[in-house]
């Protein structure tokens, strides 16, 4: 005997329950799923290359210490370090070509001093020749090409360029910017989908096939998503196109990175004229390196520091801290070469907020901010991204039940989004795409192509239905 409720027997239309209303998320979820699926599908090869090369770069810091241990360290720690001027003189005697562009005194008891020479024949113009000097004996322990403000030596430089542009120059940088532009989108969409699923936290034990792959993909992706978003945001800060837009925004907000005024007359406005590099030639210009270093020490600039000789007769020495690990030391001073007096001081504490965040973000991205733990975290993130890509392609294959290609997701997801939600969403995407062009342009191209393919499929379906109707008549 079956029991029925009164409502089930009432044939009056007024008594019928209203259809359930679809929430905003139920209409957005197919769109987010389609975005995550196709973005992951087509961007994944670029992300795979970025992850693999990024993993190598994160490991290159420790590898550099092992490969170049002879140049970077001394055999015996002496009782007293020699004056900087004597160490530079020894380096110049061994390598008289070029000009002294900077000097980094030995920052630790067992570390060598670096004397950087620019304009040396056979050395790339964008790099310097670093001469390594024993601070206790003034013995030259070797010379290597050096690149960038982090002092990357040949091994790390090669891996850095491989990660940044695949050794293809400016054209190659588009790959890394493309990957960084989409990484946060894919990670964010995946995170939303994972936590919106019922039973997303269900244990994987006992599951098989695509469900198990999905569980592994979602769990690892959820744990690593915040790191991916951070890597994406920090990577874009010095990219070609998005980076330029970010820099323009910082300029308009007055948040650019200041630099100490290197004018011998001072000024104290942190204009930074000539502060980027010293090419004046004689490192012993004026009062000399030792007095300049003493003046900087008196202002509280502890190791590690870099001394930049005057760029010309009207410029001052610049001494700046170069420690990017926590706590960050980035103070700098200008020293008059004729008197040895400090003419300008710039403290990292006085940097604008966005300048500080940019410095910390870049150093975090490159593995410098927290040293070895930072580098291990980057390697784990890179390995996680590689696994997620492999699992993602496996799910695509499993979705097609073993066919050569997985089944695509159905079209028309955006048509189910209410206009009140779709219009502001499109406006936000347009603004974002303008500031991050390697996100906006490919997205617009995909939408246009998808619309064309959808129209073609629609016409074919309509033609088949018409042919079927004629055949059946």
From TrEMBL:
Keywords of the record, alphabetical order, are: Membrane, Transmembrane, Transmembrane helix
Q: Does the keyword Glycosyltransferase apply?
A: no
Q: Where is this region: Disordered?
A: 1-23, 257-280
| Bias (Low complexity) | 1-14
Q: Does the keyword ATP-binding apply?
A: no
The Gly residues compositionally biased stretches are 264-280
Q: Where are the transmembrane segments?
A: 35-59, 174-195, 216-238, 376-396, 417-435
User: What name has this protein been given in UniProt?
Assistant: Peptidase
